[in-house]
Amino acid sequence: MRRRKRKNPINPKILYVSLSIFCVLLVLFSFKFSSRFSTVKTVFGDGIAPMQRGINTVGRSLSNFFDLFESKEALLAENAELKEKLDSLSYNNKILVSENSELDNYRQLVDLDKKYPDYPKVAATVISRDGNNWFNIFYIDKGTEDGVDVDMNVISGNGLVGIVSEAGKHYAKIRAIIDDKSSVSSMFESTGETCMVKGNMESIYNGYIDVQMISNTAKIKDGDEIVTSHVSDRYLQGLSVGYVKDIVNDENGMSKTAHLIPSVNFDQLEYVYVITQKKDSSELKEIQEND
Question: Is residue 288 predicted with pLDDT exceeding 60?
Fold first, then answer.
């Protein structure tokens, strides 16, 4: 059974026209009889005002939110830009520090060349080291093809590094004076008193190595410089070895011992000079053979 459709009792067009006429009449009456409609306006205004305040509050909140969002976006963009600039400055600073460090190394080599002008030299770069944080055994990038040979003295910083113990065509192995197997016949520059500088890998962690066989009559003091001796069979005379400290008498009273602060920083070697002139020890050997 089909349901009958209800007929709309009021035509929408008629309703629209009627409401329009009613609104126009209200507008006319409000102007014509404004005093009589004041109460209605007040009641209507009192009802609308809280709603308007709420709308205004929501509007301000939304406005503040979007302003804050825009400010945050601007700050993030500015922060990213500043970070990029900071990274760039940090990178440039590292390059400058590296260049300054390399320049300082070159200056030291130049000063060292001036300090020992009579000795022919070959500049070399340290390319590797053995075992630990100290350069007691290390390798350089110059060899026999560059005039480097076994028993040639090696210098850097302010003085003696060690001696060439092995040489290939394009590399050489250096044994430093701090190595346990190293011993350097030396003397005090101020008095000429002889002594023996012995490598000690345990002591170097405290910043020094050992000095032995000092005469008990030697007039020496802390801070005196020790250089390679004229009686050394492998080391050229007059190369700075280091500075003495902590001088004490041995128990037997026959000699003194001390500590030596090396002239070279053995944990930061980068560049060295190899003195291509060997020590001429023929006279010393003749004396020893005659004895």
Answer: no
